[in-house]
Design goal:
- This protein is mainly beta and about 850 residues long.
- It has five domains: about 120 residues, Sandwich (Immunoglobulin-like), CATH 2.60.40; about 150 residues, Jelly Rolls, CATH 2.60.120; about 280 residues, Glycosidases (TIM Barrel, Alpha-Beta Barrel), CATH 3.20.20.80; about 100 residues, Immunoglobulins (Immunoglobulin-like), CATH 2.60.40; about 110 residues, Sandwich (Immunoglobulin-like), CATH 2.60.40.
- About 10% of the residues lie in helices and about 35% in strands.
- Bound molecules: beta-D-galactopyranose.
- The site of beta-D-galactopyranose has 10 residues, from loops.
- One of its GO terms (molecular function) is hydrolase activity, hydrolyzing O-glycosyl compounds.
């Protein structure tokens, strides 16, 4: 195999590559000491930390629990505030001595302070962005060095679960005295067509020495097949103690365009070469070539193709893994979204992990990268407003500098539902932030998500951004288009319907209320006053085709905000524990574990073309014999026929036979019973047995879905998301789903019995979950309950040569089952 191909494969397989990185970047994530609590002189060299726990970064101390109503359910009922300390002892290796050494944190949640050998390096209040400190002047070349990190998140500082600690990766950057600056490359493609594209490259060369250096900059562009597309050389003077900017421009003929269906990527390899010919730094930047165009009349175009945003908002937690970033968990989350038909992600309401952006680049998802949930005016007591004045400019510029090379990113969002909407001169802040975005990146538009429809327009905040996002204002699209025909508009946040996977309450089409079981029906009709079922957004988008599309709230359930339980509404400050034990949200079409709820299929029926069919509810209604139960089919086929115990209940035509859905929400003036062209509905007198749906296109059968009345659970079915995972770096995960099954092979949709997992072999137990928003079983418990027939276990592959992981599930009265997953060293060829 050719060398370049091997290197490329290595980059594709490595589970933690950083896509704007110097070859001097060194893994610094293992063997950190951790202590939860206050430590006097925690930074001092003499402190004895032998008894502290050894942890691996990324680490989230709060997900270890306990869940308690001592903590705020709005933030997951988990102990994310307080003080925590991390320390790492290290000695420079021979090749690291006398180099320029920096430490790079990709994100510490939050209010971090860092010391090296007792010297204070700095603080960073915002937890969602990375930062770098220069260690060089304080390093001991021969003796042990100690890095100390103090983390001090405050209570009432977030509206969702933020996680706590060093929850993103950390690196030691070992460089020569001349290097490419941190986040120091910017690759911009413009005038892009399928025939040619102009590429502008900007490289920041940093010289730490006092004297000027003559250097040559070699920029090589390599395509996804490993072919060198262009090589450019430039001689320049890197002035002493300064950072200079070198620029180059060239054309790529017949560029391989980046798109949602075919996300082609290029790599820029930058070398800084001394006048003696020594390569002083090699820095790799991945980028994509694509054309984006936003118009008020028609919408958004990607490479000339009209593309509607089928978007979701996502918070950053990874369910049972908490906020600790893991590449595979992030990838699985985004793959599930893509399967639902999603083509765009809004990183609500903060800069996301590097891994998330890399995967969006790789699998073809557009990204709206959002900076803030709060500006200077308070939403919550200890929110970002406390540091806004001092830090907003640095944070916003850093977000753009960090993220600007990702082809997936199409807009920068300066804020979500910021309170400045309601004040007269709030527009000035919006104008300042929008200007920063233009200065840092003239190639992408900026935006914001406005929820105060009248105020944001009256106070002229909406006038400051390039693209106007409205939260929950589908019923206003027509009006705003008429009043502002030149505005480019989209639904920055939509829907907010709540549901618990597999839960249906009788009477069936219930209204918005709290239930004694602490759950919400899965008929996809219930939500808070500002919310509305997906049907309404689909409907208004159809009526207003120039609207760019939507970002529904939220793709996945997340820890915190257990609406309707707990807090009354978004402006409730303080504790949300009146309905404890509810501690996680109900908003997702997918639950905390990645299990699909009914709503997943409603979106899929609208956002995908491959024939699909889904039926709800379950069919275990003992005691309701003869009562009419609403049965819905979600499909993208033309017609569906429903059968009960073999008897046809009639065919219905999608879009013609409209399923009645009860609707009520702010600004909506239509009938309470909305005839939805997006759902098919039958009211079926209950009789146990088999409910079957058959779907047709052009009169031909394209799908079938059967739900049976299930018997007692007898056995467990185990399915792994992948049967071979990587043992390269101890970071790869396997997600195993357990389903309860009866003696006839039917899925037991109402089974809530116990289950216990064990993990053995060449992997370790990582976490469990069942998606129940009111369960207080911690993810680090191997014992839990099925929630409506399902449970999840996550195992981690050991680092090494590879082998097998055995995952066993047992439960009282159930046949014990084991699944075996292979682990293998996937990049061994390259080593
Ligand atoms: C929105 C807010 C989101 C979330 C959502 C719940 O107003 O922007 O962060 O709170 O409501 O419906």
């Amino acid at each position: 195999m050719k060398n370049y191909l091997k290197i490329l494969i290595c980059f594709l397989l490595m589970s933690s590559p950083s896509w704007a990185q110097s070859d001097g970047q060194t893994d610094f994530n293992k063997d950190w000491k951790f202590y939860k609590g206050e430590v006097k002189d925690g930074e001092s060299i003499g402190l004895n930390d032998e008894d502290w726990r050894t942890v691996r970064i990324p680490h989230d101390w709060a997900i270890e629990g306990p869940f308690s109503n001592e903590y705020n359910a709005r933030c997951g009922g988990l102990p994310f505030h307080g003080e925590g300390w991390y320390r790492k002892h290290f000695t420079l290796t021979n090749t690291q001595k006398d180099k320029h050494v920096t430490i790079e944190f990709e994100g510490v949640m939050n209010n971090s302070e860092v010391w090296i050998n007792g010297h204070y390096l700095g603080k960073r209040p915002f937890g969602y962005l990375g930062f770098e400190y220069d260690l060089t002047p304080y390093l001991k070349q021969e003796e042990e060095n100690i890095i100390a990190v103090k983390v001090k998140p405050e209570d009432l500082s977030s509206r969702w679960y933020p996680g706590a600690g060093m929850y993103r990766k950390v690196w030691l950057n070992i460089n020569n005295d001349v290097r490419v600056n941190h986040w120091g490359t910017f690759v911009k493609a413009h005038n892009v067509t399928s025939r040619v594209a102009t590429i502008d490259i900007q490289v920041e060369v940093q010289n730490f020495k006092l004297s000027d250096e003559i250097v040559s900059i070699k920029n090589k562009v390599v395509d996804a097949n490993g072919n060198t597309v262009k090589e450019l050389h430039q001689k320049t003077i890197a002035e002493g103690k300064k950072t200079i900017i070198a620029q180059q421009s060239f054309n790529i003929i017949q560029p391989l365009l980046w798109s949602i269906d075919d996300p082609n990527l290029y790599q820029l390899v930058t070398e800084i070469i001394s006048k003696e010919g020594e390569v002083m730094d090699t820095y790799r930047t991945r980028f994509g070539v694509r054309d984006i165009k936003f118009t008020a009349k028609e919408g958004f175009f990607l490479n000339g193709e009209l593309t509607k945003f089928n978007g979701v908002c996502l918070h950053h937690d990874l369910g049972p893994l908490g906020a600790a970033v893991n590449r595979r968990a992030t990838q699985r989350q985004l793959e599930i979204m893509k399967e639902m038909g999603v083509n765009a992600i809004r990183t609500s309401h903060n800069p996301p992990s590097r891994e998330q952006l890399e995967i969006c680049d790789e699998i073809g998802l557009l990204v709206l990268d959002e900076a803030f949930d709060e500006w200077g005016i308070q939403k919550i007591e200890n929110g970002y407003h406390k540091v806004f004045d001092e830090w907003h400019e640095r944070d916003l510029r850093d977000m753009i500098r960090r993220d600007r090379n990702h082809p997936s990113i199409i807009m920068w969002s300066i804020g979500n539902e910021i309170k400045e909407q309601k004040v007269k001169d709030g527009w000035k802040v919006a104008q300042k932030l929008a200007k920063i975005c233009h200065e840092e990146d003239p190639s992408r538009p900026n935006t914001a998500g406005f929820n105060q429809y009248e105020n944001s327009i009256k106070n002229k905040l909406a006038h400051q951004v390039d693209i106007v996002g409205f939260n929950y204002k589908a019923a206003k699209y027509e009006e705003v288009r008429k009043n502002h025909p030149d505005w480019i508009i989209y639904g920055s946040e939509t829907e907010s319907i709540t549901s618990s996977r597999g839960v249906y309450h009788a009477p069936f089409l219930e209204k918005y209320k709290k239930n004694t079981d602490h759950q919400v029906t899965s008929y996809d009709i219930i939500g808070p006053s500002w919310s509305y079922p997906p049907d309404m957004e689909f409907y208004y988008l159809e009526q207003n085709p120039s609207i760019l599309g939507e970002f529904m709230w939220t793709g996945f359930d997340y820890f915190g905000e257990p609406t309707p339980y707990g807090g009354r509404d978004n402006s409730t400050n303080g504790y949300w524990n009146s309905d404890w034990p509810n501690k996680s949200s109900f908003f997702g079409p997918v639950d905390l574990c990645g299990f699909k709820k009914d709503r997943f299929y409603l979106y899929q029926s609208q956002w995908t073309d491959t024939p699909m069919l889904h039926l709800l509810p379950h069919w275990n209604w003992k005691g309701y014999e003869g009562e009419e139960i609403p049965v819905f089919a979600y499909t993208n086929a033309e017609e569906v026929e429903l059968f009960l115990n073999g008897k046809s209940l009639g065919k219905k035509v999608k879009g013609v036979d409209k399923g009645i859905v009860p609707i009520q929400f702010q600004y909506y003036e239509g009938p309470y019973d909305f005839p939805s062209p997006y759902r098919l509905r039958w009211d079926v007198p209950y009789q146990e047995g088999e409910l079957k749906a058959v779907s047709y296109i052009d009169g031909k059968v394209v799908g079938e879905e059967i739900i049976n009345t299930h018997l007692k659970a007898k056995t467990i079915e185990l399915t792994a998301d992948r049967i071979i995972i990587s043992s390269d770096d101890g970071e790869d995960l396997v997600f195993v789903t357990a389903r309860a099954i009866d003696a006839k092979g039917n899925f037991c949709a109402t089974f809530n019995g116990d289950i216990q997992f064990t993990v053995s072999g060449d992997g370790t137990f990582e976490a469990t979950g069942n998606g129940d928003p009111s369960s207080l079983v911690l993810p680090n418990s191997k014992k839990l309950k099925f929630f409506n027939g399902m449970a999840l276990v996550i195992a981690r592959a050991n680092e090494g040569k590879g082998g097998t992981i055995n995952i066993t599930a047992k439960g009282k009265g159930l046949k014990t089952k084991t699944i075996t997953v292979k682990t293998e060293a996937q990049n061994k060829e390259i080593q």
